[in-house]
């Protein structure tokens, strides 16, 4: 399984990566400190190397999580990205963020940071 | 003929009921002030066109006098061109609006005379509205009557003789003129408008007088003027008076002093703006708590949860501790930022407002950043007159320049030497403009229009540059806390200009 973690916060990436490992996720994890970097990678990645799961932060400079989703939608018209399941992983407690996330067809789930072992087990179970 | 609008405007704000009747049968009501309407529980417009004995609200009922008696009094006032004042018992209309002291109720009937003809009758119902007023039993002569009436009014009444184009001389001003402006009436009368009305109101006033004469109509406007009695805001109305040949002889004017109303409106507006700003701050702080404050907290919570399962003698454990420390420090920084911003927003230091020599503060900020400027071969060009001052707080102005210069250095364009220019100018007597420009990397204003001055927002594609995204937020907060405004123009790879208005 391949996983992308997109987050501008290095400590958050460290923690999520560690949690996935501790939760028994046998996966190849790639991390990105900016959404733009992740979009570039998706554009230039062969279909077989596309991630199965993307953990996406919302509050990021330059290209935020919502803008990433917009670009991802456009990209999916050129490229078969259906297999990528996007989970919002954010510290935001803003109700409007939750509503907006669940209103977006690309979003599979919404997880409040810090990600827990229970969250990871649920994702493993679904996939 | 003397305009009914001018006459009725003179009585409009009086607390005493006034009715103006046409001086010919059937003596219809052609104007009634609000006090009359309030007294008889009707809108003043509803009283219009009612006559002595007919209509919705008959004058006989309003005055409590029989029709024959009223007609006799009107004939007497018209034929003698003299006023009549008689003690009267007001009718109990309406039932719940009895005068406080029926002994002090008088009916006064005044003629308004023009060209030796009585054109209007004014009925003044003294004591009717429940507020006793003194009345003179012996009526004054007709010649002195109008000035006496006008002197009893709260509104300013004046008459200007038109001597030549743009040459207007005061021939009459009532006592309210003196009370409102602080200028003695005896000095006003005989003076030209230019000697009495100060600029910038004078230009507006002369323009309106010209308009009234040229278009032969009543003209009204609002003006703010500085008089010995203070700054006054008035609603002005002037009516031109022409002779048979169509020459404008005089201007009859009325001013309703709305200074208090305007001040109340401004206070209300300031309160609304404060409320809006507080609401916006609250939304912003909710955002900060839910996003920025929560992020390091969530990291710390997660790291602490993992710690018991990690061997304390490993490098991984040390890595966890380092991240934990960083997260807690970040939390502390955000809390300090929020406290700093709140202290500025609360304007705790506004008592220390002083005239600041801007060039000096700007030079000081530039000197403190001189090593960073020199390191990039940047040049700071301050062209502010040493005598140019703005009101404010020195520390805030220093912070504004320090943040702007620091940002210009951080986000300079890599392929050219940094040039920063600071200028200041006086745009109007009440508006000063400070321009801060650089030839740096600029940014996409279309994309970031609403984000530029927001807290913890960064919009340059330069991830290697240190910064928390608080500098411009502080600049805007400082500017607004001192009562100014800030705007920005920027073009990618060309540069940025901040404009501060004070």
TrEMBL record, chain A:
Residues 2-127 form the Response regulatory domain. One of its GO terms (biological process) is phosphorelay signal transduction system. Coiled coil: none annotated. It comes from the Bacteria. Keywords: Phosphoprotein. InterPro entries: CheY-like_superfamily, Sig_transdc_resp-reg_receiver, TCS_response_regulator. Signal peptide: none annotated. The modification 4-aspartylphosphate is found at residue 57. This is Response regulatory domain-containing protein. It comes from Adhaeribacter aerolatus. The lineage of its organism: Bacteria, Pseudomonadati, Bacteroidota, Cytophagia, Cytophagales.
From TrEMBL, chain B:
The keyword Phosphoprotein applies. Residues 217-270 form the PAC domain. InterPro entries: HATPase_C_sf, HATPase_dom, His_kinase_dom, HisK_dim/P_dom, HisK_dim/P_sf, PAS, PAS-assoc_C, PAS-like_dom_sf. Its EC number is 2.7.13.3. Keywords: Kinase, Phosphoprotein, Transferase. It holds the Pfam family PAS_4. Residues 288-502 form the Histidine kinase domain. CDD domains: HATPase, HisKA, PAS. It catalyses: ATP + protein L-histidine = ADP + protein N-phospho-L-histidine. One of its GO terms (molecular function) is phosphorelay sensor kinase activity. Residues 142-216 form the PAS domain. PANTHER family: PAC DOMAIN-CONTAINING PROTEIN, PHYTOCHROME-LIKE PROTEIN CPH1. NCBIfam families: sensory_box. This is histidine kinase.
């Amino acid at each position: 399984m391949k996983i992308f973690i997109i987050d501008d916060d290095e400590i958050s990436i460290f923690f999520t990566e560690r949690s996935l490992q501790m939760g028994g996720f046998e996966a190849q994890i790639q991390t990105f400190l900016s959404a733009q970097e992740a979009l570039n990678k998706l554009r230039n990645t062969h279909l077989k190397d596309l991630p199965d799961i993307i953990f996406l932060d919302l509050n990021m400079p330059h290209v935020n999580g919502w803008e990433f989703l917009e670009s991802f939608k456009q990209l999916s018209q050129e490229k078969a990205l259906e297999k990528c399941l996007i989970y919002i992983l954010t510290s935001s407690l803003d109700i409007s963020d939750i509503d907006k996330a669940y209103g977006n067809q690309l979003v599979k789930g919404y997880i409040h940071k810090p990600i827990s072992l229970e969250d990871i087990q649920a994702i493993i179970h679904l996939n | 003929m003397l305009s009914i609008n001018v006459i009725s405007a003179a009585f409009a704000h009086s607390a005493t009921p006034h009715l103006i009747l046409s001086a010919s049968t059937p003596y219809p009501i052609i104007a009634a002030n609000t006090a009359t309407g309030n007294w008889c529980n009707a809108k003043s417009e509803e009283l219009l066109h009612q006559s002595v004995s007919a209509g919705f609200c008959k004058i006989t009922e309003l005055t409590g006098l029989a029709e024959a008696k009223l007609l006799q009094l009107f004939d007497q006032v018209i034929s003698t061109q003299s006023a009549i004042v008689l003690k009267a018992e007001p009718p109990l209309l309406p039932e719940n609006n009895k005068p406080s002291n029926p002994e002090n109720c008088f009916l006064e009937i005044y003629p308004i005379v023009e060209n030796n003809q009585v054109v209007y009758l004014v009925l003044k119902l003294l004591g009717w509205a429940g507020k006793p007023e003194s009345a003179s039993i012996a009526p004054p002569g007709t010649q002195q009557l109008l000035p006496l009436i006008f002197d009893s009014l709260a509104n300013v009444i004046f008459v200007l003789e038109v001597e030549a184009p743009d040459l207007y001389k005061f021939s009459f001003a009532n006592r309210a003129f003196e009370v409102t402006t602080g200028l003695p009436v005896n000095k006003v009368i005989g003076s030209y408008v230019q000697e009495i009305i100060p600029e910038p109101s004078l230009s507006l006033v002369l323009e309106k007088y010209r308009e009234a004469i040229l278009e032969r109509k009543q003209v009204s406007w609002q003006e703010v003027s500085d008089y010995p009695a203070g700054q006054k805001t008035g609603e002005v109305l002037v009516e031109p008076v022409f002779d048979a040949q169509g020459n404008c002889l005089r201007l009859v004017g009325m001013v309703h002093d709305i200074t208090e109303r305007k001040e109340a409106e401004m206070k209300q507006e300031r309160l609304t703006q404060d409320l809006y700003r507080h609401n916006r701050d609250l939304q912003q702080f909710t955002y900060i708590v839910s996003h920025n404050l929560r992020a390091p907290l969530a990291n710390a919570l997660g790291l602490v949860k993992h710690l018991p399962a990690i061997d304390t003698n490993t490098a991984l454990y040390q890595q966890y501790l380092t991240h934990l420390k960083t997260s807690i420090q970040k939390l502390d920084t955000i809390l300090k930022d929020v406290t700093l911003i709140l202290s500025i927003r609360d304007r705790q230091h506004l008592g220390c407002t002083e005239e600041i020599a801007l060039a000096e503060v700007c030079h000081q900020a530039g000197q403190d950043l001189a090593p960073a400027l020199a390191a990039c071969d940047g040049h700071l060009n301050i062209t502010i007159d040493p005598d140019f001052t703005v009101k404010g707080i020195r520390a805030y102005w220093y912070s504004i320049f320090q943040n702007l210069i620091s940002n210009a250095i951080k986000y300079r364009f890599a392929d050219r030497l940094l040039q920063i220019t600071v200028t200041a100018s006086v745009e109007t007597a009440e508006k000063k403009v400070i321009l801060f420009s650089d030839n740096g990397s600029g940014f996409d204003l279309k994309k970031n229009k609403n984000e530029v001055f927001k807290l913890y927002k960064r919009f340059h594609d330069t991830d290697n540059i240190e910064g928390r995204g608080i500098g411009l937020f502080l600049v805007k907060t400082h500017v607004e806390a001192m009562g100014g405004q800030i705007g920005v123009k920027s073009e990618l790879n060309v540069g940025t200009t901040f404009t501060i208005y004070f």
